[in-house]
Design brief:
6 strands, two-stranded antiparallel sheet, Alpha-Beta Plaits, flat, 3 helices, alpha+beta
C-alpha cells in the first residue's frame, strides 16, 4: 500500500533557509531507517512557494489562470513529502510517528494520506 507523508509548510520553511544541522542529521537518520526497512519510494523537499506558480482551472475547456508565488497561509502549503510502500495503514502510521519534527522549532506538521493505486480503487471510492 502506498502512502504519502505530506510535510506542511511553515513561516520558517517558506523563507527558504536550510534547517539546522541537527534537524538535517535527524532527517538523514529517518531516511536511512526507511531505506533499511525497504519502504521508502521517494522523499523530497520543495522550494518555497515564492519560486512556484499556481494554476487555477476556473472555466472548463479554457486555459488555467496562472498565479505567481508566494502564496498565502504557509500552513495551507506543502514543503516536502515522503512516499512509502508498507503493508498496512497501521504501519504507515508507525512510520509517520517516527518522523522527527520536519521543520524544527515545533512548527512541523505532517499529513498522512493513502495513494489511490489504479482505476479499480478509484471506482470503489465512488
Amino acid at each position: 500500500m502506498l502512502f504519502m507523508l505530506i510535510v506542511k509548510a511553515s513561516p520558517t520553511s517558506e523563507t527558504g533557509k536550510l534547517p539546522s544541522i541537527e534537524l538535517m542529521e535527524a532527517m538523514t537518520k529517518y531516511n536511512e531507517e526507511l531505506d533499511e526497512a525497504g519502504v521508502r519510494i521517494m522523499a523530497k523537499g520543495l522550494h518555497p512557494s515564492s519560486s512556484g506558480i499556481r494554476l487555477s482551472f476556473t472555466t472548463p475547456g479554457e486555459q488555467p489562470e496562472v498565479t505567481e508565488g508566494p502564496f498565502g497561509n504557509p500552513k495551507e502549503l506543502v514543503s516536502g513529502f515522503f512516499l512509502i510502500d508498507v503493508e498496512s495503514w497501521e504501519a504507515a502510521i508507525d512510520w509517520a510517528m517516527r518522523m522527527p519534527d520536519p521543520i524544527g522549532n515545533g512548527e512541523g506538521e505532517v499529513e498522512l494520506r493513502q495513494v489511490i493505486e489504479g482505476t479499480e480503487e478509484m471506482e470503489s471510492l465512488e
